[in-house]
Structures are given as structure tokens and as C-alpha cells.
Write a structure and sequence with these properties.
With 376 residues, the protein is of the alpha/beta class. The protein has eleven helices and twelve strands.
Length: 376
């Protein structure tokens, strides 16, 4: 009962914080606004403590790059972490990703290797969704731990690494870093402009500007078409800070036949004009639906779940039944959802898994910027 009430409260707060509104007197929204003012004061005091070195930072004996944002929710931090790790590998570095392991099972005094770059060593429930997903790429090590310094020490002891990437690390001030990359969603970079829990801001642009070395806009209009600027002005606050534009490129990660007989290679073009049922439990479910619609899928129904939702067999049965009843030719989901799925479940309808990769509008400029910062 209590768990259900808390889940309902979380959903209500998430819904409110994601939209624009003017709180009515004595409303729940007004309570959230009051709480956000307290949160803002506490955040300012914490940042001031680190700035004045009253609160000490710990240092790892190698390069540390943070990828983060100032808003809660999906700005594309995990695809950016993958992109950065692969870019650093091309430059001759040996990167590892340090992740908090959000909603994983490790306690705050523990750290573990989710993947060593060759094999996956944890499941999704232990490591958390994003670390498990990155470890599954088997390209670079992924280490999990709420204490990123402890996670980094573990990596240095057991793995051959020379640079760390902090996934969602901008507010993790306990660990010093050499470079802070801050991501903003192009269409809604500051959400509704309110601090948590009334909005999605973890801190204001003014609080973050002095620590930001590079700004990355995600989900920009593809190519040179469309509005080149974000829908909330950032240049005034981050004046003089390099700004890079990127877009999210979907790709067909896996395709399973309805009999679960294996994976058939394919491309997104094979899905065009297919009638599909979607399901997803990510920060921006709507963005997933818009993405698959853009490459020609006919969406019959979209079953939306909370971010980091843990699927049960009953959920899979419901999704399968919806696909059968609606006459869908295809079931579509995201890579983040796929890593949590029961691989033994018989879907009876073809299942496609969509991954996302980051593409820079000007990758050469970003690489030059990165090299200049790493060589200083």
C-alpha cells in the first residue's frame, strides 16, 4: 500500500515538474514551489562549500571528464558517454566509465566492475540500467559505485585505464575533474525553469556556468535545417564557453523473430510502414515515439512506463496481447528497456530494439576542443 502511494506521488511530481504552470494558492504545485526554494538554498550552500574548499574534493591520479546536465531527465548523457569513450579510444587513450549505478543494488560503500570491456560481469538489477547497457557494448570498462573515487580506485587496481568518464557526474562534486561537459536538450534546455521538485533543474545556469568547460546541445534539428538555436537562451549565461550541436541517430540494435529463434541483421529501412506497438520506460517516452514515427513506423499503441521501471512477466504478457489484438506486425522498444527484459519470453510477434547514437554537427571541432583540454 505504502509503496503504491509513493509510486503514485512520484508520478504526480514527475508530471507536474515536466510542464509549465502557475501554482494556485494552497495547491500541491505551490507546495512543490516552496520545496524547490529550500532545495535551491541548500544547493547554493553546497556549491559554495566546494568553491571555498570547506568541503574537500578527492583526486584520482589520471584524467577525469564529467558528462552531466543541470536538469533531471534524459538529455542523452549515456549515448554521449559511449561516444566520448569511443572517441578517446581512437585517440589512443584507455578510458573507463564511472557510473553511480542509479537504482542498482550496490550500497554506498561498495564498487564493482559491471564490464571490463570484453565481458559483462553484473546484471542490470545489480549494476543499474545504464551501466549494464554500456557494459553490454563490450568496448570499454564500466565501473559502478555511488562513491566515484572508490570506483576509480578499483578500476586502477584491476584494469589498464588512463582516463575516467563520469556518467552523470556534474553534481558529483566529491570527485575532482579536469573537464566538465554539460548537456542540454535543444527543445527544452531548462525545462519549466523551476528547481526540483517543482521543475527539473538540479541547479540554475548561473550556478553552473563557472564550472562548465563545454556546452553540448542534444536532439538538435538534423542537418542544417530548422532553428539552429535552443528554445531557451544559453549564450548569455555561458558566454565564452564552447558550444557544440549534436543530434540523436536511431539504429536497429537487434531484431528478433517472433519465435525467438535468433537475431536477424537489418536496418531501420526494413521497419518503414510496419504497424507497431511500442513500449518504453525511459525519461522521455514521447521522444522515443517521435523517433520511430520519423523513420516511417505506423504506431498503433505506445505503452509508457516510468523511467527505470522493472518489468514483470505480467507487463510482457500485456504488451504481447496488445500487439496480437491490434494486428501489429512489430513490437518496438529501446536498448535501455531491452537490457531488463526476460530473454526467454516468447513474444510471438517480431521484436525490434532501437539504439541511439550521438552525432556531432561538427565532430572535428569537438575533437580539437577535446585534444586541447586533455593536453593542457
Amino acid at each position: 500500500m505504502i509503496k503504491s502511494l509513493l509510486a503514485h506521488l512520484e508520478k504526480r511530481i514527475t508530471d507536474i515538474s515536466g510542464k509549465d504552470y502557475s501554482p494556485a494558492p494552497l495547491s500541491f504545485e505551490q507546495v512543490l514551489v516552496f520545496c524547490s526554494r529550500i532545495y535551491q538554498v541548500v544547493t547554493k550552500l553546497r556549491l559554495w562549500g566546494y568553491e571555498k574548499k570547506i568541503i574537500k574534493q578527492q583526486n584520482l591520479p589520471c584524467l577525469v571528464i564529467s558528462i552531466g546536465n543541470i536538469t533531471a531527465g534524459g538529455a542523452g548523457k549515456t549515448p554521449m558517454a559511449v561516444y566520448l569513450a569511443e572517441t578517446l579510444m581512437e585517440m589512443g587513450y584507455r578510458p573507463a566509465v564511472l557510473s553511480r549505478g542509479y537504482k542498482g543494488r550496490l550500497d554506498k560503500y561498495s564498487a564493482g566492475i559491471a564490464g571490463d570491456g570484453e565481458q559483462v560481469l553484473m546484471d542490470a538489477e545489480t549494476a543499474g540500467d545504464e551501466p549494464f547497457m554500456m557494459a553490454g557494448r563490450k568496448r570499454f570498462p564500466v565501473i559502478v559505485g555511488r562513491n566515484r573515487y572508490l570506483a576509480g580506485q578499483l578500476a586502477l587496481e584491476r584494469l589498464d585505464v588512463d582516463v575516467f568518464i563520469l556518467d552523470d557526474g556534474f553534481q558529483h562534486m566529491a570527485l575532482a575533474r579536469d573537464l566538465n561537459l554539460v548537456l542540454f536538450d535543444h527543445d527544452r534546455p531548462l525545462g519549466n525553469g523551476r528547481m526540483l521538485p517543482a521543475g527539473r533543474l538540479r541547479e540554475t545556469p548561473g550556478m553552473s556556468a563557472g564550472r562548465t568547460h563545454g556546452v553540448i546541445l542534444t536532439r538538435c534539428p538534423d542537418g542544417s535545417q530548422g532553428d539552429p538555436e535552443p528554445k531557451a537562451p544559453l549564450h548569455g549565461v555561458y558566454r565564452g564557453t564552447p558550444l557544440f550541436r549534436t543530434c540523436h541517430k536511431p539504429f536497429l540494435l537487434n531484431f528478433f523473430s517472433g519465435t525467438n529463434s535468433g537475431v536477424r541483421p537489418g536496418c531501420l529501412g526494413k521497419l518503414k510502414n510496419k504497424k507497431a506497438v511500442l513500449f518504453s520506460g525511459i525519461a522521455k517516452n514521447r521522444a522515443f515515439r517521435e523517433t520511430v514515427t520519423e523513420f516511417g513506423v505506423k504506431v498503433l499503441k505506445h505503452l509508457e512506463f516510468m523511467d527505470h521501471y522493472r518489468y514483470k512477466r505480467a507487463d510482457f504478457l500485456k504488451i504481447r496481447n496488445q500487439a496480437t489484438e491490434s494486428g501489429a506486425e512489430l513490437i518496438l522498444t529501446t536498448e535501455k528497456d531491452w537490457v531488463k527484459m526476460d530473454r526467454t519470453f516468447a513474444w510471438k510477434t517480431d521484436l525490434a530494439v532501437i539504439g541511439i547514437r550521438i552525432e556531432f554537427e561538427n565532430p572535428g571541432a569537438f575533437n580539437r576542443f577535446l585534444k586541447s583540454k586533455l593536453n593542457t
